[in-house]
Design goal:
The protein is built from 17 helices and twelve strands. With about 550 residues, it is α+β, with helices and mostly antiparallel strands. The protein has four domains: about 45 residues; about 70 residues; about 140 residues; about 250 residues, MetI-like (MetI-like fold, Orthogonal Bundle), CATH 1.10.3720. The strands form three sheets. Strands 4-3-2-1-5 form a five-stranded antiparallel β-sheet. It has a five-stranded antiparallel β-sheet with strand order 9-8-7-6-10, with helices on one face. It is globular, with a radius of gyration of 31 Å.
């Protein structure tokens, strides 16, 4: 009786249901755990950490060090003895701390490991100041007081000086990227126009005189802007802050090189929250600095979103047209089945192969031909014969095309044949039936394919390294210079930014929190793009649900 009950339980399929549910639950737990780890490590990067001052002694030499405790681990007793620690053979593992000490221009070491047995004393000085600099990373130290000056007065004077400096930096950046950048762009276009006239044999004295007149006007505008830029730089002057580091080293820090200063040990909770919001806003709205280990990632966000949108515009119509032909027009036979199998197999081709194909065909062959036909005046400098936003988008569109084709074919297959026959019986042509009935009803499946394409394309890195992405792009592909949209320009991407910061950074420890923060941001961008597409798909599904029933 028991054996029969067990046999019936297995025959009912309940064990497989439980097994499937367990696998789904395990997958959800792993995904949630991974996102939680990324969020914890990434979002914690912006919090103002407490700065601790350590007094320690190694081989009788006493030293002082101040910094943020970023990590800790345990080292075996044998390894601790090799490092000179007085540890017995049977002692417990020794804890050591990873301190972000900053002051790289003074000590040449941004991070330092200290074993706890070496630490004689540690304190949290309230007046410790953290200076975020445009170069050399953070500076930790105390502001030197002038005669009769209190700590609060010195701090307020420093804050005001940094605020003036940052306002001046913003004006300089706006002038350099806006007016001066626009003039340089127009001068380059003017040079290319003159070169085109020379190649066409139309470089008449009158035409050259007109170009020279435009060039003189642009040069005059450039000189005037350059004078204003020089005057702005002169406003910085020699203003500096006298700082004494924890080891007692005195230095004068130029105010113009300070991004912000704060006293984390003296900040209240609202002040820390305000600092957190300011740092996060800088992260998503500012340009990177310090070899991409500091500052923001706005160019990477902009490039990622623009590339995905352009890729979606390319892949959706191509995938739908291919699926319509294979399902509605092509004669079903061996050739059609072979093509369908090939399309399905293309979905499994490694992405780097698409990158190599994009580099060889799109960039070198097609791009080189476009340069020879339409941009001969720019040669030998390539315009489209080098990696850029357009070729990256086309390559990813080719990579994700099988996904859209298969999804669209599945949607077309689910549409009842009676709907097609009814439309044809009412006098509609096959094209009208497809355009007015079949495609609208299959639009949810089409959007599903686009969603899957966006999810894959936004996270791809390998092919982009060959067809257009760069470590740091000097200008965005979309700006105020005619023709406003520049698909030939190279761009930054969040996925490549993660790779560059995590594996190519000269300061890996400093870049590690930024890797988590950028990874979390990339996930958020992908989710946001997918939510928009899912919203559109759900509206289409509700609109045509009645027809399906």
């Amino acid at each position: 009786m028991t054996q029969r009950r067990k046999t019936g339980w297995f025959a009912s399929g309940d064990p497989w249901i439980w097994l499937t549910a367990s696998a789904v639950a395990a997958a959800i737990v792993m995904v949630v755990g991974l996102l939680t780890l990324i969020a914890y490590r990434g979002m914690g990067h912006f919090w103002p950490h407490t700065v601790v001052q350590f007094e320690y002694s190694i081989d009788g030499a006493k030293s002082v060090l101040a910094g943020e405790v970023r990590d800790s681990d345990l080292i075996p007793a044998a390894r601790a003895r090799d490092a000179g620690l007085p540890v017995a053979e049977d002692a417990e593992p020794v804890t050591r701390l990873l301190i972000k000490a900053g002051n790289r221009d003074v000590t040449r070491e941004d991070f330092v490991w200290i074993a706890e047995p070496f630490i004689a004393n540690q304190s949290i000085p309230e007046n410790m100041v953290v200076f975020e600099r445009r170069e050399w990373g953070n500076l930790y130290g105390f502001i030197d007081l002038q005669s009769g000056q209190s700590h609060e007065q010195a701090w307020q004077a420093v804050e005001q000086a940094i605020e003036r400096s940052n306002e001046l930096h913003e004006r300089i950046e706006a002038l350099q990227k806006g007016e001066i950048g626009g003039i340089n762009y127009q001068l380059e276009r003017l040079r290319l126009r003159q070169r085109a006239l020379e190649l066409d044999g139309e470089d008449t004295p009158q035409a050259l005189a007109e170009l020279e007149q435009e060039r003189q006007a642009l040069n005059a505008a450039y000189n005037e802007a350059e004078q204003r830029l020089t005057a702005m730089y002169e406003q910085f002057g020699d203003e500096s802050v006298a700082v004494t580091t924890a080891p007692g080293v005195k230095l004068d820090q130029s105010v113009r090189h300070i991004v912000r200063a704060y006293r984390p040990n003296a900040m209240s909770l609202p002040q820390k929250l305000g600092h957190y919001v300011a740092k996060f806003w800088e992260f998503i709205s500012d340009d990177p600095r310090e070899a991409n280990t500091e500052g923001g990632v706005f160019p990477a966000i902009f490039g990622t979103v623009l590339m995905v949108l352009l890729m979606s515009v390319l892949v959706a119509p191509l995938g739908v047209i291919a699926a319509l032909y294979l399902r509605e027009y092509a004669k079903q036979g061996i050739l059609t089945r072979t093509i369908s199998i090939a399309v399905n197999n293309l979905a499994g081709v490694p992405s780097i192969v698409y990158g190599v194909f994009g580099l060889g065909f799109f960039v070198y062959t097609l791009g080189g031909s476009i340069d020879a036909l339409f941009y001969p005046e720019a040669l030998p400098s390539p315009t489209f014969g080098t990696g850029g936003l357009m070729w990256a988008s086309v390559t990813l569109a080719l990579l994700t095309l099988p996904v859209v084709i298969v999804s669209t074919e599945e949607g077309l297959t689910r549409i009842p044949r009676a709907i097609r026959e009814g439309s044809l019986a009412l006098g509609a042509t096959q094209a009208e039936t497809l355009w007015r009935t079949v495609i609208p009803m299959a639009s949810p499946a089409i959007m599903t394919g686009v969603i899957l394409a966006v999810a894959r394309a936004a996270g791809e890195v390998a092919p982009l390294m060959l067809v257009g992405v760069v470590k740091l792009a000097p200008s965005l592909p979309l700006d105020l210079n005619y023709p406003f949209f520049h698909p030939d320009r190279k761009f930054m991407h969040l996925g490549f930014h993660i790779y560059d910061v995590g594996f190519q950074s000269p300061n890996v420890e400093a870049a590690r929190p930024l890797v988590y923060a950028t990874a979390l941001l990339l996930v958020a961008v992908i989710v946001l793009l997918n939510l928009v597409a899912i919203r559109v798909r759900n509206r289409l599904r509700e609109k045509y649900r009645a027809l399906e029933n």
